[in-house]
Amino acid sequence: MRQLIPREINFLNHHGIKEIDWIKIGEAPVEYLVGWAEFYGREFEVNQNVLIPRIETEQLINLSLAHLKSIFHQPLTINHQPLTVADLGTGSGCIGITLYLEILSLSSRARGQRRVEGSSTGIQMFLSDISDKSLEVAQRNLDRLVPKPNLINLIRSNIFDQFPSNLKFDLIIANLPYIPSARIAKLPKSVKDFEPLLALDGGPDGLKLINKLIAQSQLRLKLSGVLLLEIDETHKIKDLLLPKNFRAEIIKDQFGKRRFVKIGKEN
Ligand SMILES: C[S@@+](CC[C@H](N)C(=O)[O-])C[C@H]1O[C@@H](n2cnc3c(N)ncnc32)[C@H](O)[C@@H]1O
Predict the structure, then answer these.
(1) Hey, which of 60, 142, 154, 198 would you mutate to test ligand 1's pocket, going by the most ligand atoms within 8 Å of its Cβ?
(2) Angle at which helices 132-145 and 94-110 cross, to 10°
(3) Measured in angstroms, how far is the CA atom of residue 267 from the centroid of ligand 1?
(4) How confident is the model over 237-247, as pLDDT tens digits?
(5) Confidence at residue 113, expressed as pLDDT on a 0 to 100 scale
(6) How many CA atoms does the CB half-sphere of 10 hold within 13 Å?
(7) Considering the entire predicted model, what is its pTM?
(8) 138 touches 90 (CB < 8 A)
(9) Does domain 55-265 bear CATH number 3.40.50.150?
(10) 54's torsion region: left (phi>0), alpha (psi -120 to 50) or beta?
(11) pLDDT, tens digit, 9 for 90 and up, residues 100-138
(12) Is 26 in contact with 189 (CB distance < 8 Å)?
């Protein structure tokens, strides 16, 4: 019989679930049972077509905001040209939607406004995924969480293949599938039996899609633009197929694991 950890008990209580038939449920993650997961203080709808947002991934938001502040000056003001941001492999939309809302809140605070408005934000935000079923979940999260959801572009695309060809970005963030294929069978049952393989399997070395994205970023990043990616702790800079003018830096997560890579063009 499955033993719940305190976090799972609290989570179920919070969602009003007291009685559960654990024999029927097996190792299903509690987030799929209730249909919600928390990310950066907000609740996102989830189902088995999307990965459950992970706490480590929240750091991508902090890293993104720190980068944007460094290029747009403190406090974040977005006056001159639209800030262009893409979240690839958006899944539930948790990264792109959170970042958009945090940028809105920073920019309205900088302008001394009390309410967060979706208009004239100066941000062009693109969320994309290859999976139609993920995009349906992302769309519902967008409609519920974002004041003017139609200002955000949701695109079905294999990495950048289906994006308009002339679009370049200040920031590209992505938590693409990065687990090496051979490790999938060794993952906990709660992951391998419930979460979508499309969200986990990164090919033989886990870098199939990450390296495809890096190659496409040569044309997609503005000169001062940055690529912020979540990676597997086994990945090293030498495993990345970096164009000559790109520089990369590995960043650890809050558990001390090598978890992110920040890539930019050398000026
Ligand atoms: C690890 S999940 C991340 C989901 C979400 N961004 C998060 O952090 O919780 C990876 C996502 O990439 C999507 N994906 C897989 N292959 C892709 C591809 N070739 N192009 C774009 N998205 C892809 C999957 O459908 C999945 O939603």
Answers:
(1) 198
(2) 30
(3) 30
(4) 999 999 999 99
(5) 58
(6) 5
(7) 0.94
(8) yes
(9) yes
(10) beta
(11) 999 988 877 776 654 444 445 678 999 999 999 999 999
(12) yes
